[in-house]
Amino acid sequence: MEEECGLHMKREPQYPRCARGLGQVFEKIGDLTRARRWIGVYLSHSHDPDPEAEQEYQRLLGLQ
After folding, report:
1. Cα(first)–Cα(last) distance of the chain, in Å?
2. pTM, full prediction
3. Angle, CA of 15, 42 and 13, to the nearest 5°
4. Which site among 4, 22, 36, 43 is 20 to 30 Å from 58 CA-CA?
């Protein structure tokens, strides 16, 4: 899934939702390192405002 999302984002970086989804999946299964990585990737790309993702990322970084 990670490889597929990475390839997708290389081809169509304007559609980063797969990274958001991977971050949520990894958080749910307790792999917080990967969750932080993918939410960070998502937030680093252009997208509509997503305050929920911003809060989630801050929480994963231990800043909230």
Report:
1. 29
2. 0.87
3. 35
4. 4
Contact between 45 and 9 (Cβ < 8 Å): yes
What string of pLDDT tens digits covers the 64 residues of the chain? 999 999 999 999 889 999 999 999 999 999 999 999 999 999 999 888 899 999 999 999 997 6
Whole-angstrom CA distances from 38 to 4, 14, 20, 43 are 13, 15, 6, 9
d(CA 6, CA 59): 24
- What would you measure as the largest C-alpha separation in the chain, in angstroms? 34
Q: Which two tokens stand for residue 27?
A: 């958080």
Closest CA to 50 of 20, 9, 13, 6: 20
Tokens of 52: 């929920």
Helix (H, G, I), strand (E, B) or coil at 64: coil
